Amino acid sequence: MKLSYKWLKEYLDVKATPEEVAHALTMSGSEVEVMPEVGSDRVMDLEITSNRPDCLSIIGLAREVSTVFDRIFACRSWRSRRINMKKGRRSNAR
């Protein structure tokens, strides 16, 4: 799985360098195989093991990094929608 360092920083305020984040993820069980520079970003290529399905998304990896570095995880908010099965209409969840 690929993880952009800039994208990761949208979810948490981590002061660590991309190399420190890569090392921390490797030590927590998600091995970073390579980390090329793409433009002005660093993209980590991770090997996610089968016992860590929670790390198969940007949100899961951001949670993992926030735990390792003791930072607050700030997930973007989104609006879910409910479907009224009786009428077949959608309504905004409250």
Word description of this protein:
There is one protein chain. With 94 residues, this protein is α+β, with helices and mostly antiparallel strands. The protein has one domain: Phenylalanyl-tRNA Synthetase, Chain B, domain 1 (2-Layer Sandwich). It contains three helices and six strands; from the N terminus they run E-H-H-E-E-E-H-E-E. Strands 1, 2, 3 and 4 form a four-stranded antiparallel sheet that branches. Strand 5 and strand 6 form a beta hairpin. It is globular and about 50 Å long. The protein starts with a strand and ends with a strand. The model has no long low-confidence stretch (mean pLDDT 85).
Describe the structure using short key phrases.
alpha+beta, four-stranded antiparallel sheet, single chain, Phenylalanyl-tRNA Synthetase, Chain B, domain 1, 26% strand, two-stranded antiparallel ribbon
In angstroms, what separates the terminal alpha carbons?
34 Å
The level-1 CATH class:
Alpha Beta
Q: Structural class per helix/strand content?
A: alpha+beta
Largest sheet report: 4 strands, antiparallel
Mean pLDDT: 85
Task: Provide the helix percentage.
Answer: 25-40%
Low-confidence stretches: none
- Count of helical segments? 3
Percent of sequence in beta strands: 25-35%
